[in-house]
Amino acid sequence: MPIRSILAGVGGYLPKRVLTNDELARSVETSDEWIRERTGICQRHIAAPHETAAFMGTAAARAALADAEAATDEVDAIILATSTPDQAFPATALRVQAALGVTHGFGFDVAAACAGFIYALAIADGMIRTGQARGALVIGSEVYSRILNWQDRGTCVLFGDGAGAVFLRAGHGSGRFDRGVLSTHLHSQGTLGDILYVDGAVGQREKSGHLVMNGREVFRHAVVRLAEVVDEALAANSLGRHEIDWLVPHQANLRIIDAMGRKLGLPAERVVITVDRHANTSAASVPLALAEARGDGRIRPGDLVLLEALGGGLAWGAALVRM
Ligand code: COA
Question: Which residue's CA is minimally distant from atom 3 of ligand 1?
């Protein structure tokens, strides 16, 4: 039987500090009502100085390894998605490798903004299928609080910090009923780079930059592109919408999530939502949501889960996983 990546463990980490909409409304002209109505967000977690992408990614990775009952010597690859790395280099993945005490294999970072986790999952899955790794940590870890312009009410209300991770283990399977990653689907369109970006980086000038977004345009593209990639994932596996047990979407905006749920004909209780409490944690949002729904027993072994995300680039993608 062909090699397949089994999703053996999931974990998450959220900073202790919670920032509510009401608190935000004291420093920028907004209101709890406006933020809830337009986005579904009620609060977000904000990292303390020591809670960097590496620190949070390590905590999430430890939780995923514990969930998988995996020892660190099973970790051949660490692929970490982030737009807010601790340093230009070494890769944040390698800071995590050191913190975990992993002394073999390899690691690197992936930059695909909010789609980063899906991209990293696709890469790890490919490496496992081709025998380059037998165990892989796939991590999304972000501290957007450090790239937000806290005076810009159009963006600062939307994001939060956190990390999520999965541990993939090589197994065997074929067809849509066997466990593991069934397929991944990646897309990007660089011509849309200017509707969501960070206006600086270490390679450009001294300024590290702030997130800039044309919210309406991103919203418009998100609904269309995500619907397309969901159809693509279903068609690639000859699956009907009704065969999906859970949608675990990127958590950017409740209205976008609801549109995807309706498209799949899924009842609201089959769509995992964390955006109300986490806001948009970019590459961390999908694994954090997965960790929550696995942890509380909603998602069970054998369930078919559809993951999707879109973000700056534009970059977007989807993955189908039999748990
Ligand atoms: N509080 C109060 N008012 C706000 C506000 C805030 N936090 N942010 C913007 N506004 C105001 C605007 O200034 C505008 O006022 P005006 O009409 O006087 O100019 C009004 O609200 C409407 O702004 P608009 O940007 O058209 O609102 P919207 O309905 O498009 O909602 C978003 C804004 C950002 C919530 C929405 O566009 C969105 O969610 N887009 C997708 C964002 C996303 O998912 N990004 C991440 C992808 S990874």
Answer: 30
> pLDDT of 192-219, one tens digit each?
999 999 998 877 766 778 999 999 999 9
**DSSP per position, 197-247:** EES--TTT-S----EEE-HHHHHHHHHHHHHHHHHHHHHHTT--GGG--EE
Atom nearest to 312 CA in ligand 1: 48
**pTM of the predicted model, to two decimals?**
0.96
45, 221, 250, 278: the active-site residue: 250
Query: Does the Cβ of 25 fall within 6 Å of ligand 1?
Result: no
Token pair in block for residue 91: 């890769």
- What's the Cα-to-Cα distance from 207 to each of 53, 246, 315, rounded to whole Å? 19, 41, 24
For residue 179, the SS3 value is coil
Give residue 136's region: left, alpha or beta (phi > 0; psi -120 to 50): beta
Ligand 1 geometric centre to CA of 219 (Å): 10
Mutate to test the pocket of ligand 1, among 38, 142, 221, 257 (most ligand atoms within 8 A of CB): 38
Instruction: Find the 179 Cα to ligand 1 centroid distance in Å.
Output: 40
Tell me the pLDDT tens digit for each residue of 4-45: 999 999 999 999 999 999 999 999 999 999 999 999 999 999
Q: In Å, how far are 10, 153, 194, 282, 317 from 212, measured between CA atoms?
A: 31, 11, 9, 14, 22
Residue 303 DSSP one-character state = -
Determine if ligand 1 sits within 6 Å of the CB of residue 285: no
Distance CA 241, CA 231 (A): 9
Domains of the chain: 3-172 (3.40.47.10), 180-322 (3.40.47.10)
34 Cα: distance to centroid of ligand 1 (angstroms): 9
